[in-house]
């Protein structure tokens, strides 16, 4: 079943509300002030039965210039429009502004009802029809049928009803969206039921019992009951005029302008990218100008950043970033209208291209590429471009929150990019990176490693954290480790605990044969159980302390030496021998002291302390006063 919404448009007192009442039998002016003043102030809603099995929703909008923002809220989610023009007055100022709004919102299907024909003669009806056709010739409304009608005599009503049925049949079926979205236009409470929100569902569907989220409040709501056109239903669909009885939120927390979306969607924003089409009499839109933005049922003030020029002239199209003065809920694809800050006259309109964009640099070609891809719905190329723009990893969910199509679509694009070798994937992290970015990172890491090693004698490794802070400060620790894993798989580097080194390391192979390395090794061979600092080794060998430290770090990386604590080195095989001595001593005496170990390994007291404190930290021993006893890892130590 197709779900269709028709909206009205036109100047004040041209007979929109009366015409809707004649079509549906429903009075859409529900406020006492509206009835008193004889004009629509708030949106009105009615159901028009096409047949026993098919009904469309009608949104009746105000025609007065003071209520254009309400009119915008009404027509933003419609499928086609009924533009009402009175035969005795013809095109009036608000008729023109409504035509501009319909044009920039891309509403290209509709009907023109030439009302009040009972007040004029046939010649006037013909003249007005010709003037309307001439005025619309350069607009998307140029092919709308013009139907004379009188709400008082009933003349033309049957033909109008027939045309509405025909238009409804011609509206193409919309693709089902995985995302539910409904701009809220009314919030009220009903005794015995609680909070009710109403709106026209812009995309997706919602069922009784579903949970959804509202923005900018970012609150969770649950559907208690649903009504469509006054009838209780289990599910409501795109285009349905819907009332939702909600729990989990108070009436005072919600208002017109709230956006209801699927629970897994983040619609919160205070900055949006948009494509803007200027209207014919708007003069120009200047960079940094303050404007009124109407989006969904929300009206907010924003400052315009024009991204590719200094101004957008009348009838021109341009890309802008809107910085909103308060947060709202919005999604990619949402239609919007811009009006001058003062006087509030329509400038132009368009659609949201990115609802949570980063700060954009002006006149950047790369920025325009992503905006054009989003506008033209070239989503495969857009995913590729978004990955290449981001010098890091992205998850499929991050891309889904940008594209807002479906998770299956995003996964399909990513899978195809992997097949095309346009992306890489880290399975444990479930994240993707552009192949171009990965290749650039590979070159950067190789260059940094080579430069670091070549500029430091006896150094062939780079500390991981130093690498991260130098090259990838924007990476999370998890993403950085994922990157190192990929680079190791591709034989770019070796991941060695706290350090990284080139995968094919010529310097490493040459290190063992250097006389300085042999000299340092000889010092430890002379007294294999001694624990020394780089400064102490330098004093014994005559080498520079920095040279010695580089050699000791190298030998540690080769698993020949170990740092018992920061800056204190000894041989790995010496630690293994000390462990065996410890085990033998504890089995015999149940305890061991510093003096016992010093005498057993025939070294100095300081070295014996280094060993025992190291084994304390490994839980091999447990200290009590001056004695050590067997610890939890006493018989489970490996090095």
- Please identify the top-level CATH class of the largest domain: Alpha Beta
Named CATH architecture of the largest domain: 3-Layer(aba) Sandwich
Beta-strand content: 25-35%
Any low-confidence stretches, pLDDT <50, length ≥5? 29-42, 63-67
CATH fold annotation of the largest domain: Rossmann fold
In short:
With 639 residues, the protein is an alpha+beta fold.
Write the layout of secondary structure elements.
Blueprint: E1 5-9, H1 16-24, H2 32-37, E2 44-49, E3 55-60, H3 68-75, E4 80-86, H4 93-104, E5 110-115, H5 122-135, E6 146-148, H6 157-170, E7 181-190, E8 194-200, E9 205-207, E10 211-215, E11 219-228, E12 231-233, E13 235-237, E14 241-247, E15 259-262, E16 268-278, E17 284-286, E18 290-295, E19 298-306, E20 311-313, E21 317-329, E22 335-340, E23 346-354, H7 365-375, H8 379-389, H9 396-403, H10 407-419, E24 423-426, E25 431-434, H11 435-454, E26 462-463, H12 464-471, H13 477-489, E27 493-496, E28 499-502, H14 506-511, H15 515-526, H16 534-541, H17 545-557, E29 561-565, E30 568-571, H18 572-589, H19 594-601, H20 605-617, E31 621-624, E32 627-630
Parallel strand pairs: 1-3, 1-4, 4-5, 5-6
Antiparallel strand pairs: 2-3, 7-8, 7-15, 8-14, 9-13, 10-11, 10-15, 11-12, 11-14, 16-21, 16-23, 17-20, 18-19, 18-22, 19-21, 22-23, 24-25, 26-28, 27-28, 29-30, 31-32
How does this model look, in words?
This protein has 639 residues and is of the alpha+beta class. It has five domains: 5-170, P-loop containing nucleotide triphosphate hydrolases (Rossmann fold, 3-Layer(aba) Sandwich), CATH 3.40.50.300; 181-262, Elongation Factor Tu (Ef-tu), domain 3 (Beta Barrel); 268-367, Translation factors (Elongation Factor Tu (Ef-tu), domain 3, Beta Barrel); 378-504, Arc Repressor Mutant, subunit A, CATH 1.10.10; 512-639, Orthogonal Bundle (Arc Repressor Mutant, subunit A). The chain is built from 20 helices and 32 strands. The strands form nine sheets. It has a six-stranded mixed beta sheet with strand order 2-3-1-4-5-6, sandwiched between helices. The radius of gyration is 37 Å and the shape is elongated. The two termini are 71 Å apart.
């Amino acid at each position: 079943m197709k779900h269709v919404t028709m909206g009205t448009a036109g100047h004040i007192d041209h007979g929109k509300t009366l015409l809707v009442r004649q079509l549906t039998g429903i009075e859409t002016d529900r406020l006492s002030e509206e009835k008193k003043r004889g004009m629509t102030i708030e949106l009105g809603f009615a159901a028009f039965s096409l047949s026993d099995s098919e009904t469309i929703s009608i949104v009746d909008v105000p025609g007065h210039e003071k209520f254009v923002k309400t009119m915008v809220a009404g027509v933003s989610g419609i499928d086609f429009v009924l533009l009402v023009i009175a035969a005795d007055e013809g095109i009036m100022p608000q008729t023109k502004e409504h035509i501009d709004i319909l044009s920039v919102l891309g509403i290209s299907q509709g009907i023109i009802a030439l009302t009040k024909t009972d007040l004029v003669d046939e010649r006037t009806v013909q003249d007005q029809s010709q003037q309307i056709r001439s005025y619309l010739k350069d607009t998307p409304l140029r092919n709308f049928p013009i139907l004379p009608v009188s709400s008082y005599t009933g003349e033309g009503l049957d033909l109008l009803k027939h045309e509405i049925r025909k238009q409804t049949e011609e509206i193409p079926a919309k693709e089902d969206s995985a995302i539910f979205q409904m701009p809220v236009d009314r919030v009220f409470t009903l005794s015995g039921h609680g909070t009710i929100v109403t709106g026209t569902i812009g995309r997706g569907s919602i069922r009784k019992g579903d949970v959804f989220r509202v923005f900018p409040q970012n609150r969770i709501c649950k559907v208690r009951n649903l009504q469509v056109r006054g009838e209780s239903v289990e599910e409501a669909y795109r285009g349905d005029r819907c009332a939702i009885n909600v729990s989990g939120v108070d009436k005072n927390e919600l208002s017109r302008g709230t956006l209801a979306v699927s629970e897994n969607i983040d619609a919160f924003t205070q900055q949006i990218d948009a494509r803007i089409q200027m209207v014919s009499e708007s003069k120009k839109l200047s960079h940094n100008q303050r404007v009124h933005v109407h989006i969904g049922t929300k009206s907010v003030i924003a400052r315009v950043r024009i991204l590719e020029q200094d101004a957008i002239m009348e009838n021109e199209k341009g890309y802008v970033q809107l910085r909103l003065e308060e947060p709202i809920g919005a999604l990619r694809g949402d239609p919007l209208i811009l009006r001058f800050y003062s006087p509030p006259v329509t400038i132009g309109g368009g659609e949201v291209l990115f609802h949570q964009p980063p700060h954009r640099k002006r006149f950047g070609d790369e920025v325009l590429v992503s905006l054009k891809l989003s506008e033209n719905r070239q989503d495969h190329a857009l995913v590729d471009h978004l990955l290449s723009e981001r010098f890091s990893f992205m998850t499929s969910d991050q891309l889904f929150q940008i594209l807002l199509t479906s998770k299956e679509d995003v996964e399909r694009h990513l899978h195809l990019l992997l097949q095309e070798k346009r992306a890489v994937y880290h399975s444990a992290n479930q994240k993707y990176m552009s192949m171009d970015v990965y290749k650039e990172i590979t070159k950067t890491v190789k260059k940094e490693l080579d430069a670091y090693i070549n500029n430091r004698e006896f150094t062939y490794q780079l500390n991981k954290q130093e690498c991260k802070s130098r090259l990838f400060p924007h990476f999370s620790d998890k993403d950085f480790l994922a990157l190192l894993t990929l680079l190791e798989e591709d034989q770019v580097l070796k991941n060695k605990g706290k350090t990284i080194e080139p995968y094919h390391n010529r310097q490493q192979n040459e290190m063992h044969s250097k006389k300085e390395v042999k000299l340092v090794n000889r010092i430890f061979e002379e007294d294999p159980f001694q624990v020394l600092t780089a400064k102490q080794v330098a004093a014994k060998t005559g080498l520079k302390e920095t040279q010695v430290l580089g050699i000791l770090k190298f030998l540690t990386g080769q698993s020949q030496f170990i740092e018992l604590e920061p800056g204190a080195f000894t041989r790995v095989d010496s630690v293994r021998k000390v462990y065996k001595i410890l085990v033998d001593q504890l089995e015999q005496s149940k305890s061991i002291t510093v003096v016992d170990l010093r005498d057993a390994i025939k070294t100095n007291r300081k070295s014996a302390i280094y060993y025992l404190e190291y084994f304390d930290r490994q839980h091999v021993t447990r200290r009590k006063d001056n004695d050590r006893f067997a610890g939890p890892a006493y018989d489970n130590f490996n090095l």
